[in-house]
Amino acid sequence: MSEDNLFSPDEERLIDEAFQHLIDSYLQTKHRKKVEIITKAFQFARQAHKGVRPHSGEPYIMHPLAVAQIVCSEIGLGSTSICSALLHDVVEDTDYTTDDIKNVFGPKIAQIVDGLTKIAGGIFGDKASAQAENFKKLLLTMNDDIRVILIKIADRLHNMRTLDSMQPRKQYKIAGETLYIYAPLAYRLGLNKIKSELEDLSFKYEHPAEYKDIQEKLNFSREELNNIYNDFTSPIEEKLDQLGVKYNMFGRIKSPYSIWKKMNKNNLTFDEVYDILAVRIVFDPTSPEKEKSECFDIYLALTKIYKSHPDRLRDWITNPKANGYQALHVTLMSNSGQWVEVQIRSRRMNDIAEQGIAAHWKYKEGSTYEEDETELTHWLETIKEILEDPQPDSMDFLDTIKLNLYSSEIFIFTPKGELRTMPQGSTVLDFAFTIHTYMGTNCIGAKVNHKLEAINYELKSGDQVEILTSKSQKVSPEWLDFATTAKARGKIKQVLRKEERANQKFGEAIFHEFLEKEDMEVDSAKMERICRLHGMNSRDELMIALGQKKIILGDAERNIIKGESDSWYKRFWSSFSSSSSKDKDKKQADEQNQEGVDVKRTLIINDMDMHKYTFADCCNPVPGDAVLGFVDEKGHITIHKRKCEVANKLKAAKGNRILTVEWQIENSLFPVTIYMKGLDSIGTLGKITEIISKKMNVNMNKLVIESKEGLFEGTISVEVHSLKDVDKIQKELKKIKNITTVVRKEE
Questions:
Q1: Which domains does the chain have, with CATH numbers?
Q2: pLDDT tens for residues 202-229?
Q3: pLDDT at 241 over 90
Q4: For residue 497, what pLDDT band results from cuts at 50, 70 and 90?
Q5: Residue of 92, 114, 210, 500 marked active site
Q6: Catalytic residue among 17, 36, 89, 93
Q7: Looking at 665-710, which runs of residues are DSSP E strands?
Q8: Which residue has better confidence, 340 or 568?
């Protein structure tokens, strides 16, 4: 950041206009009109940030003003939150303290600002990454005031809206952690609109080519979608008008990120995503008591016009989602032969869908509506419980939290008929842990609808479950393969870590006895060689294996300890580390992270150096893919696709170890799997192999084809030089008659 003495008159006018817009927006809300304290907070922040500019070059005060605007207009919070948003960077970036804020604005605003300061790092500062420890702090602030998280989400949204000013490496890191942490968090707090925007902005910066392609296809399809919408809604409008319903109806086009995600998940092309258009009906109920019944009245009216999909009715009114979302979703067959989803919401339900928890508060005060917030409260309690268990690894922690952020719900009944909400995909074991830790750790199965089922049985909505236990049952590592909820996985890992500590202690004793018997000493380099010998990542892992008797020490270890130390690692690390001579100034030193990796460096991958890197099996990148590099603790670099889920976790947990990567490879071969489906016909298989082997002259490693009821689907594994080869193969395969889908399979 740079400092100027004064802003230009145009910039001062821009600041004043932004503040006036904030006040105008605030005056339009139903909150008590505390304009004076908001003005006071603005003047305080304006003076504190005087002359400061972020990377974008505009006055810094524009950032807290923008965050306050989001807090007011898009989340719907009141004066306390608006003031806190205006002041959220003051303690972090200036000489003012939390006590100064408390003296001027009172304890509540000071408490929220203090919470934000603990998890801050300034706008795009060095600490802006949501490292696991920072994220823990973020979640812990829920104990004090959940508005801290809401303001932090607003802060992140504005950061994403102004991400253009950042270097690509930081764009990947910030976009990755946004997609992995902040978007799911916004979803869980009911901020659906903000969640969608965070996802789309992350998608835009991480995968600009795919984002642009989908946007162009949406723009091209817009006229057709408008025609479908008008034809579909015309009879609905007529029917609702006859019933005297006061409503607004509008179309909603699926977001680019949602389309892209569905294409990747289900191996679809853009044209095969059928639910791009949805219709939303927002109505004013005649009274709060009739709100739910009038939702179903509208649904019945629609089914008299169009046929409904029997498996696509979603009743989120009777059983709201865990984030408070309520609506009735029905999928109807249009006259043009396309399925169209219709979402039916009251005005209150729509506000809660857009503004989440803030709207809960709005309708709770002085209203006849009775809001059931037990599920949201239950989620908050679960998060606090996870935080109480110290996670040894930041990736484990993020995984555990992520499980509890994004999930559809199912409804399970206890033997006494009590209703419990569980994430979709939950097993008997997951349900046991929701009741009590003892029930989980001693679970041997359950009676599901009075029928015996194993602990890995996947529950379905409406199941009645009675957990069965035994004192002789022991927690097993295999349980992690089918435990899906954050609580269950957290408790299982806690028990396993306790056992690991005992095994590690036993392993240490065995190793020490081995060294004493042979009268040997071991240094770090030799220990690393022993770990590599057994495929272990760390000394602790080796000791645990020794304690479990999975490894028996013998001649191989004796030879390593008595032989020369291995220096390859030092040579390897130094080739990727920045030299740190004494005459380097502070600015250059700041360009390196604490491990010595030059974070600004762009890694060039060529044919000669290819053996130095690992190409991740989770996503199988090839030259031409948008990729990044991750440097582990040993200095080894793994190459991931930028859209890889593992890469997203790494960006969120260890963003300072991410490198930008450029391909300069011409001759090396990379494995790729291509998915195909279509109508089964004689000769199709022959045409596929002819194109791959003869026309494209590509080495084919594996071909799997399955035919059923006149349709076929399969995969073909080939070796290619680059993404261009993949595109050519797909283009040629699509020319084969009866093949409807050809896409590169995402591992």
A1: 2-206 (1.10.3210.10), 209-364 (3.30.460.10), 494-566 (no CATH), 574-578+595-664 (no CATH), 670-744 (3.30.70.260)
A2: 999 988 889 999 999 998 888 888 888 9
A3: yes
A4: confident
A5: 92
A6: 93
A7: 670-679, 700-708
A8: 340
In terms of Cβ atoms closer than 10 Å to its own Cβ (0-12, 13-18, 19+), residue 370 is exposed
Q: How far apart are CA 99 and CA 55, in angstroms?
A: 29
H, E, C per residue of 618-655: CCCCCCCCCEEEEECCCCCEEEEECCCHHHHHHHHHCH
Compute the distance between CA of residue 46 and CA of residue 295 in angstroms, rounded to an integer. 48
Alpha carbons 289 and 301: distance in angstroms, whole number = 20
The tokens of 409 are what?
């719900």
Q: How much of the chain exceeds pLDDT 70, in percent?
A: 83
DSSP class of 592: B
Cβ–Cβ under 8 Å, residues 113 and 91? yes
Quote the Cα angle for 502-503-506, to 5°. 90
Judged against a pLDDT cut of 50, whether residue 145 lies above it is answered with: yes
What is the distance between the alpha carbons of residues 311 and 273, in angstroms, rounded to a whole number? 18
CA distance 346 to 693: 59
Residue 93 known to be catalytic: yes
The whole-model pTM stands at 0.65
**Which residues lie below 8 Å from residue 110, measured CB to CB, with a gap of 6+?**
98, 99, 101, 102
**For residue 328, is pLDDT > 90?**
yes
In this predicted model, what pLDDT tens digit does every residue of 230-240 receive, in sequence order? 999 999 999 99
Look up 746 and say whether it is catalytic. no
- Which among 451, 439, 532, 535 is positioned nearest to 491, based on CA atoms? 439
CB 114 within 8 A of CB 91: yes
Per the DSSP assignment, residues forming a β-bridge with 660 are: 602, 628
Q: What's the one-letter identity of residue 614?
A: T
Provide the CA 616 distance to its chain's centre, in angstroms.
20
